[in-house]
Amino acid sequence: MTTAEILKSRARDFARRSDSRQAEGDAIAVIEFRLAGEKYAIERADIREVIPLKELNPVPCTPPFIRGIVNIRGQIVTLIDMKKFFDLPEEGIADVHMVILVQSQGVEIGIEADAVTGVREIARVGIQASLPTLSGIRAQYLKGVTDEGIAILDVARIMGDPRIVVDDESGTIN
Predict the structure, then answer these.
(1) pTM metric for this prediction
(2) Which of 14, 61, 107, 144 gives 171 a disulfide partner, CB atoms 3.0 to 4.6 angstroms apart?
(3) Domain CATH code at residue 92
């Protein structure tokens, strides 16, 4: 076989592998983070930015999972403690918490994370609907779980939960 034939054969193989990846549904870009020792991710398309938590202002008459509000360059954003929202155990006190600003349907909130561990792409074919051992509140807010045990959160479902909306007129939760 000549060098030209070898290169042509390699090019065909490479093109076939690229086509098979397209057929598998590609990948999604996510930001990975930790909550109570567990690994979670949110699709990059749902995230505006990630910033360190500096100042937190508590708000009275709100559910326990609403940590308060933060001022981000003049914009007031509600901060959600996902550990309390998901009923996860507290894992000690971290020195620096991160705020992941997410948006869906014109609404923006901050999600508190213990640590942001990275940005990566996850193949859609590697995402399972849910783990059979996962039950309770978290299962309904997941897009899926990877082979590595990373739970991918569904931001639209979280933000659509009526528990995170506080009725400002009566001071009660909707």
Answers:
(1) 0.74
(2) 61
(3) 2.40.50.180
